[in-house]
Amino acid sequence: MKTYSPKKAELQHRWHLVDAEGVALGRLASRVAQLIRGKHKPTFSPHMDGGDYVVVINAEKVRLTGKKLFQKQYFRYTGYVGHEKFTPVARMLETHPERVIEKAVYGMLPKNTLGRQVLRKKLKVYAGPEHPHQGQNPIPIEVR
């Protein structure tokens, strides 16, 4: 017996629509990462991009459990000594709510070229309920 490895031409990429309103951030991010990566398909192969496109709407209404809204911070480094920047998640939700979901999904993807490529290409996050991907007829997915 031989292990089946799908060819690039055989892979099908579907579109999914996820509404983030009232959904816990971690649950949403893990489900989205699974769809983007293609782990829900029987043809999953860790070295190929076999995942689906995911459109997340209502990113500003995502739910954070516990005290994360007040205690969680995002870290970035400017490159200069002592110039570490910490941004609270509450401020990030006010200014750029898309980045909260993007950072959560990025944390659940592999840290390699394929992970970055999949995140940039297949994840579309919007703060409000409108999105420009109606032509792709995305399949609504419910995350609990």
Q: What report would you give on this structure?
A:
The strands form two sheets. Strands 5-2-1-6 form a four-stranded parallel beta sheet. Helix 1 packs across helix 4 and helix 3 (89-95) crosses helix 4 (97-106). The protein has helices at residues 25-37, 68-71, 89-95, 97-106, 113-122, and strands at residues 15-19, 53-57, 73-77, 84-88, 123-125, 139-141. The protein has a domain at 13-64 and 96-141: Ribosomal protein L13 (Ribosomal Protein L13p, Chain: A, Alpha-Beta Complex). The chain has 144 residues and is of the alpha/beta class. It is globular, with a radius of gyration of 17 Å.
Layout: helices, strands, pairs:
Elements: E1 15-19, H1 25-37, E2 53-57, H2 68-71, E3 73-77, E4 84-88, H3 89-95, H4 97-106, H5 113-122, E5 123-125, E6 139-141
Parallel strand pairs: 1-2, 1-6, 2-5
Antiparallel strand pairs: 3-4
Helix pairs in contact: 1-4, 3-4
Q: Brief description of this entry?
A:
This protein has 144 residues and is α/β, with parallel strands linked by helices.
Strand order, largest beta sheet: 5-2-1-6
| Outline type | globular
Q: What is the count of helical runs?
A: 5
CATH topology of the domain at 13-64 and 96-141: Ribosomal Protein L13p, Chain: A
What string, H for helix and E for strand, traces the elements in order?
Answer: EHEHEEHHHEE
Portion in beta strands? 15-25%
- Total beta-strand segments: 6
Roughly how much helix do the residues carry, as a percent range?
25-40%
Please tell me the overall pLDDT: 95
Give the CATH architecture of the domain at 13-64 and 96-141: Alpha-Beta Complex
> Which spans have pLDDT < 50 for at least 5 consecutive residues?
none
Radius of gyration: 17 Å
Structural class estimated from helices and strands: alpha/beta
